[in-house]
Amino acid sequence: MKEVPNMQMTFIGDIHSAADDLQVLLKALDQPHNRFIFIGDYIDGLPVQHFETGQQARALAPLAVLDLLMQRVQQHGDVALLGNHDDFWLGTAQGDAQAYAIWRRNGGQTTWPLLGLPHDAVQLAAALNQPPFKRYTDFLATLPLFWQTQHLLAVHAGINWQYPLNQQVRDDVLWLRDAYFYATQQPTFHEAMAQNLNWPVYHPNDTHQVIVTGHTPVQTLNRDRTLLKMQHDPADTPRYLIDGGSRSGVATAGITALTLSETGAFLAACTVINGQLRPLTDR
């Protein structure tokens, strides 16, 4: 009998309506022993990509992305986590005025006309709770904030280090950035080097699980990368940031995928940029 390979997990970073790149990624990485964990932010995005020589149009297909996710979750047992942009849709559908206002400023004014949705808050909420949009609203309402095993933890934005996982606040896990990334007290560069610490100094990974997050495009922290490995010191359990900046407008924007073993060992990574698969390392 042929030996079945050990299960591996492939984490997919923020997609932001890039159904074309997502299809390339799924086709390249879909294997029987590989489970996909989608990290959130499936909708919204910018329809152009900027280069030094000019700009190019990029297709936005939020419903096609959600259709692919629903198929993966329902037919293959994959996991899709909730992102803050997905929460905009969900909150607006529930009549949350704040969610509507934030969505309007952060992608809604592009997504709504694309889908033929009204701009009025009451009318928009009603539309999201009727066909053909209700099935997507219902799907988003089922998405968890976390996925974890003994060795792995995935969440959209990050965690508040002051609280255990079962006491995390919804807004924190959907929105955190610097408080999750960095140590509260930052030494100077020379002090960090003397202590064999990375600089800027990342917060120690107190969970001792390998953590995978999205939400913050890697290019905002390192303009030349689409995957970032974070460790307080060489012995610290790694954390990975995998928001490749999909549909953010920057030249290197794409969907990043990170494959780990069941125990959290790095196996492979890649980014799909404009339909082209580009391998990455964790260095």
TrEMBL record:
One of the GO biological process terms: RNA decapping
Domain Calcineurin-like phosphoesterase: 8-218
A cellular component annotation (GO) from this entry: cytoplasm
InterPro entries: Ap4A_hydrolase (IPR050126), Calcineurin-like_PHP (IPR004843), Metallo-depent_PP-like (IPR029052)
Organism encoding this protein: Loigolactobacillus bifermentans DSM 20003
GO molecular function annotations of the record: bis(5'-nucleosyl)-tetraphosphatase (symmetrical) activity; phosphatase activity
Name of protein: Diadenosine tetraphosphatase-like protein
Pfam families from the UniProt entry: Metallophos
